[in-house]
Design goal:
Layout (H helix, E strand, L loop, with lengths): L3 E7 L3 H10 L6 E6 L5 H11 L4 E6 L5 H17 L3 E5 L5 H14 L2 E6 L2 E5 L9 H12 L3 E2 L2 H9 L5 H20 L3 E6 L2 E6 L1 H10 L1
Parallel strand pairs: 1-2, 1-4, 2-3, 4-5
Antiparallel strand pairs: 5-6, 7-9, 8-9
Helix pairs in contact: 3-4, 3-8, 5-8, 6-7
Length: 216
């Protein structure tokens, strides 16, 4: 049976978290308490004590991580729950600046809903629609990730994606197609390209890695 999983940012306001869970209007079967600052650990302990008697509760400590590293961890968690058929909500009622940005990035990429306290009750925040990428472009991002984050040339990327070919006509078609995809991915800041002599170095960005984690 599908479950409702709430991923909750914790910083300094326990009451805001409890009230948001109470008033959002959806059940909660499992809670992940996510915190970044060491000072939040006491509130996490208190919340865990309150929630674990009602629902399965887990904690995720992300101290020392930057915004993108937090986003990657959140997307791994979201993907795992979604693959189980569960519905995931993100709660930013008590998020500090870094957690708020990471939660919103994760919501936009994964298309899950994010909520927070709005006046006297919780409500969902509308996030801009996330652009969908076909499997061919996701495969390019994944290949870059698996090859250490970058390749030295488009030729190397073609080789990794489709293997070597001696057929010049086929090679030119492959190169045109890959170049087209790379231009689109670069425009969306998922890859960056840099001219190195006669070659074009292609590198995965931090945002590109987030898409690999979610969809690759």
């Amino acid at each position: 049976m599908s479950e409702f999983v709430h991923v909750i940012a914790v910083d300094s306001n326990q009451n805001a978290i409890l009230e948001s869970i109470k008033t959002i209007g959806y059940p909660i079967h499992r809670a992940y308490l996510v915190y970044r600052r060491r000072e939040a650990s006491k509130i996490v302990e208190d919340l865990e004590g309150i929630l674990k008697s009602l629902v399965e509760t887990k904690t995720l400590k992300l101290e020392g991580r930057n915004v993108f590293e937090i986003t990657w961890d959140l997307l791994r968690l979201i993907r795992e729950e979604m693959e189980k058929g569960n519905t995931v909500f993100l709660n930013i009622s008590d998020a500090d600046k870094n957690l708020a940005v990471a939660f919103l990035l994760s919501a936009q990429i994964s298309k899950v809903k994010v909520y927070m306290m709005l006046d006297s009750k919780a409500g969902f925040i509308q996030t801009p629609p996330s652009k969908s990428y076909n499997q061919e472009r996701i495969k390019i991002l994944k290949i870059l990730f698996e090859d250490g984050g970058s390749v030295e040339s488009i030729n190397r990327l073609i080789e990794l994606l489709e293997g070597r070919t001696e057929d010049q006509k086929k090679y030119m078609a492959q190169r045109a197609k890959i170049t087209y995809h790379l231009n689109e991915l670069a425009e969306d800041n998922l890859v960056v390209t840099q001219k190195k002599g006669k070659n074009l170095r292609v590198s995965l960005t931090e945002l590109g890695k987030a898409y690999v984690i979610m969809f690759g």
